[in-house]
Specification:
This protein is of the alpha/beta class and about 500 residues long. It has two domains: about 45-165, Glutaredoxin; about 165-375 and about 390-445, Rossmann fold (3-Layer(aba) Sandwich), CATH 3.40.50. It has helices spanning about 1-30, 50-55, 70-85, 100-105, 130, 150-160, 190-195, 205-210, 230-240, 260-265, 300-305, 410-415, 420-425, 430-440, 465-495; strands spanning about 60-65, 90-95, 115-120, 120-125, 130-135, 145, 165-170, 200-205, 215-220, 245-250, 265-270, 275, 280, 285-290, 290, 315-320, 325-335, 340, 355-360, 360-370, 400-405. It has an eight-stranded mixed beta sheet with strand order 8-7-9-10-21-20-17-15, with helices on both faces. A four-stranded mixed beta sheet has the order 2-1-3-4. A three-stranded antiparallel beta sheet has the order 12-18-19, with no helix packed on it.
Length: about 500
């Protein structure tokens, strides 16, 4: 009897200890979570952009999501907002069913499903059309919507918490594509992305303005089709000399008058067409898929292994600058099999060592003139620092980016959805344009990859494979378990 009581006490103590250890393990794990995303493309992990934005939040941001309780959109929204709150304690969210709590919806003027982000006195609405993008199916039928919630939500947080908006000015008047246009040769898709990144986007006409407005953090020249007048070239030259930033997208076989100006900054724009039999899209060597060279603009694309496709390009090569202190680097290059074809009328291009540019051929380049003290103010007192932390005695650095193709960030290659964009090969086109613009504007922290698309890979099986799987799962495994259980029972019974 005494031995039985001791056994019972021992069992009770062991049970108590086991439960206590389990509670302690749960307590420690809950406060020190270790999470790992095992999906191939990291689809359950927030992008670098979102993580960087959330970790630098200085003020509280609250999200109120208005969706029907238990619906699929509500579940998807709640999952991603939970990830946001895990990254930053300053981010909180609440799921609200507008049918159950109509007063809350009326208070925030919510009339449809969506998410309202609130930071102090500012708020921003993100609607269903921003969260779910519907794709066009060229073969007919219906395609499921693409979830773009992370991009929309992070852009909302940026817009609410940023203290400064920089203006990107796009030059017009020479046949350039419209930054707010919807045509295939326009750039409305990337223009909307810039606005989503908290930039102010506007157009300028230097024939009217006579100069680059002082509000422009950077200017963009997107595929001009006509020559720039001398006065406009001089205005751009003065702007760059005084520390301006500029992006040039130049098409082959188009003389713009900007070429000598770019040569002064160490960038040569060739009068040729780039052909690369070693790395191209589809069956067209005139559509090279260039190799990315290391640079702040390309670093994230290299990490994510995204590719850029150019639909016809001219060479853009770094050369020695006539200005002191200017550094030039190539951003995109063909393979060694590529070349710059100078005979633009030939029907059968072939490399001519005497006339053509031998590969690897550079298709994009960046130039930067590092800041230096102003001559008249080198001895300025150290305490004369601007309100933004900058030193007024230092020159702002000039930055220039030139690409030998104007089509890669156009609507025709950027606004395509899902599988169409992947088939065209331009998965990194928008990122290259956005990263270049952010680098020019001095917003290096914004040089990140937008949320990755879902890579849908259905399991395809033959009828024989499906039959085998059915037999194994429905028949063999249950029978094996039943036989094992019967054998164990029979052995115990026989003892």
């Amino acid at each position: 009897m005494k031995k039985r009581s001791l056994n019972r006490i021992n069992s009770a103590v062991l049970t108590f200890l086991a439960v206590g250890i389990a509670f302690m393990a749960y307590y420690v794990a809950a406060r020190n979570p270790v999470r790992k995303d095992f999906s191939e493309m990291g689809l359950n992990t927030l992008s670098d952009k979102t993580t960087a934005v959330l970790r630098t939040l200085e003020s509280d941001v609250e999200a109120k999501a208005f969706f029907e309780t238990g619906s699929i959109p509500a579940s998807m929204i709640e999952d991603i907002l939970k990830e946001y709150s895990r990254v930053s304690p300053k981010f909180t969210f609440e799921m609200i069913d507008p049918a159950a709590r109509p007063a809350e919806a009326r208070k925030l003027n919510v009339s449809d499903y969506g998410v309202v982000f609130i930071a102090g006195d500012k708020k921003k609405n993100v609607g269903m059309s921003d969260i779910f993008k519907f794709s066009y199916d060229p073969y007919g039928g219906e395609t499921p919507p693409e979830f773009s919630g992370e991009q929309a939500f992070t852009n909302a947080v940026i817009a609410l918490t940023s203290n400064e908006q920089k203006t990107i000015c796009f030059v017009e008047g020479h046949g350039e594509g419209g930054i707010d246009g919807s045509g295939g040769g326009d750039y409305g898709a990337v223009g909307g992305m810039l606005e989503g990144e908290n930039f102010i986007v506007k157009t300028i006409n230097m024939a009217v303005d006579k100069k680059v407005p002082g509000e422009c953090a950077a200017i963009g020249v997107l595929g001009p089709r006509k020559m720039f007048p001398h006065l406009e070239i001089e205005a751009i030259k003065e702007y760059l000399t005084n520390g301006g930033r500029a992006l040039f997208l130049l098409e082959p076989a188009v003389e713009t008058g900007l070429e000598p100006l770019l040569a002064e900054w160490g960038i040569s724009v060739g009068n040729d067409v780039v052909i690369d039999p070693g790395r191209f899209f589809g069956e067209d060597p005139l559509a090279p898929i260039p190799e990315l060279a290391p640079h702040e603009i390309t670093s994230k694309l290299l990490e994510s292994k995204l590719t850029v496709t150019l639909q016809g390009a001219r060479s853009v090569s770094p050369i020695g600058s006539t200005r002191d202190g200017v550094e030039t680097l190539s951003l995109l290059k063909t393979t060694s099999k590529g070349w710059g074809e100078t005979d633009l009328k030939t029907a059968r291009p072939a490399f001519d060592a005497a006339a053509d540019l031998e590969g690897p051929v550079s298709i994009g380049a960046a130039a930067e003139k590092l800041s230096e003290p102003k001559p008249a103010e080198k001895d300025a007192p150290e305490d004369e620092i601007g309100e933004d932390g900058s030193d007024p005695a230092m020159e702002s650095s000039t930055r220039i980016v030139v690409f030998g193709d104007a089509d890669f960030p156009s609507n025709s290659l950027v606004s395509m959805d899902g599988i169409i964009k992947q088939l065209m090969g331009g998965t990194g086109n928008a990122d290259l344009f956005m990263n270049a613009t952010a680098w020019l504007a001095g917003e290096e922290d914004m040089i990140v990859i937008r949320p990755r698309p879902v890579d849908f890979r259905p399991l395809e099986m033959t009828a024989q494979q499906r039959g085998s799987l059915f037999i194994i799962c429905v028949a063999l495994i249950p029978l094996a378990l039943a036989a094992t259980g019967a054998w164990i029972w029979f052995r115990r019974r026989s003892k």
